[in-house]
Amino acid sequence: AVLCVCLCVCVYTNLAHHLLSLLSDAWIQHFPNTITESDLNQYDLLIVAFAANPSFTDTELNIIYDWVNNQGGALIAFEDSQDYSPIGTFFGLTHGGYYFDVIENLNSTFIIDEPNHPIFNHVFGTGNTLSNYSWVGHYDMPLPNDFTILAHDSTLDATIVSYNNGKALFLTDEGPVNNSFLSPGTGITTPADIFFGNLISWALFKN
């Protein structure tokens, strides 16, 4: 069957190139202005990247929530600050903003809590593949019971969390998938490429 991938709100060119290279039979669609239940049910994966809070109505957020919880849809939300975290906020997370003066080197601040999770240990590579990226966003602790920390920073706040009631992943920064870190081609050549490849593999395939 054709894998249906939906990019919502913000599509970075390199991200789209890598999706096509990873999923040669994928149908990549940028959502129209309004998300409906019938629209979303056509897709296997929803990627929301750098979406401002007013991007979705309450009706659309409820549709996405139901799609993840009850329809088997996979969600990856790359958020960025209190003003760019509509999906995580609706699911119950609190984005705490940036640490501009703290994060200098990911090797010393980014700590993987679940090293065997497929996004860190899968077909495209293992370990801390984002070692050269400065992670600056965080979710406030404690997390709601519906979430599991996959990675945190040196301040002990969460940076990547998974949702326990469906296949959804929330990241506190969109930087690892913007054009500054994903390579411009279609090969897996940078650490961010490896991380993104594992993300998509986790989202769309049984692990």
Structural class: alpha/beta
**Can you list the strand order of the major beta sheet?**
2-1-3-4-12-11-10-6
Characterize the overall form: globular
User: How can the largest sheet be summarized?
Assistant: 8 strands, mixed
**Topology as H/E string?**
EHEHEHEHEHEEEEEEEH
Approximate helicity band: 10-25%
Distance between the termini: 18 Å
Oligomer: single chain
**CA-based gyration radius:** 16 Å
Number of strands: 12
What is the tally of helical segments?
6
Which segments are poorly predicted (pLDDT under 50) over 5 or more consecutive residues? Answer: 100-108
Query: Strand share of the residues?
Result: 15-25%
Determine the mean pLDDT.
Answer: 78
Describe the structure.
The chain is an alpha/beta fold and 207 residues long. Helices cover 25% and strands 24% of the residues. The protein has helices at 13-22, 37-40, 58-70, 86-91, 106-109, 191-204; strands spanning 4-8, 27-30, 45-49, 74-78, 95-98, 111-112, 121-122, 125-126, 137-139, 147-152, 158-163, 167-171. The chain has an 8-stranded mixed β-sheet with strand order 2-1-3-4-12-11-10-6, with helices on both faces. A two-stranded antiparallel sheet has the order 5-9. A two-stranded antiparallel ribbon has the order 7-8. A hairpin with a 5-residue loop joins strand 10 (147-152) and strand 11. The protein is globular, with a radius of gyration of 16 Å. Residues 100-108 have low confidence and may be disordered.
